[in-house]
Amino acid sequence: MTAPSTRRSRLVVLAGPTAVGKGTVAAEVRRSHPDVWISVSATTRPPRPGEEDGVHYWFVSDEEFDAMVEQDNLLEWAVVHQTARYGTPRRPVELALASGRPAMLEIDLQGARQVRETMPEALFVFLKPPSWDELVRRLVGRGTETEEDRARRLETARGELAAEAEFDVTIVNHEVHAAAEDLVALMVPSPTDL
Q: Model confidence over 114-171: pLDDT tens digits?
């Protein structure tokens, strides 16, 4: 029997444009690699059909979010698509890293930039669509946004795609399982790293 690890793990930050499949890839990592800790973000937007509080997001009121900001309980936060606020609760991230488990944040570009300022040692991974047309198809196919929301998200996505060079690694999301496995391979040390 080996002693539990006392080393801190390296945080992996996954970001990319809207509708690229960040949440779907993170869900696949959660399903196929339960040893990987994945942060659950807080948001002021209402749940989409099928989303559960505490599983997909922590759905909070504007007042609750304000309190989290005032008490410095968020590692990062931003207004996304000019509508809702999203943020990463700080304490669970600190606990996961201290435990030595592989740890991941699945966040937007603004959040990734904030985390880079406070945790530059993290590994920043950009999830990219196979093509612009595929990104549009995925966004429209979700059927969760109005035409106005889709137009706003696509405009945002153009700027987000231009930020790829800010990241350490790019994974193209051709297929969810393959993208998830590529991501996990970056988190788990190879035998030569031990």
A: 999 989 999 999 999 999 988 888 877 776 778 888 888 888 888 899 999 999 999 9
* Tally of domains within the chain: 1
Q: What is the span of the domain harbouring residue 179?
A: 11-188
Q: SS in 3 state form for the chain?
A: CCCCCCCCCCEEEEECCCCCCHHHHHHHHHHHCCCCEECCCEECCCCCCCCCECCCEEECCHHHHHHHHHCCCEEEEEEECCCEEEEEEHHHHHHHHHHCCCEEEECCHHHHHHHHHHCCCCEEEEEECCCHHHHHHHHHHHCCCCHHHHHHHHHHHHHHHCCHHHCCEEEECCCHHHHHHHHHHHHCCCHHHC
- Tokens 């040893």 correspond to 35
133: domain CATH number? 3.40.50.300
- Name 8's Cβ contacts closer than 8 Å, sequence gap at least 6: 97, 98, 100
Residue 2 lies in a domain: no
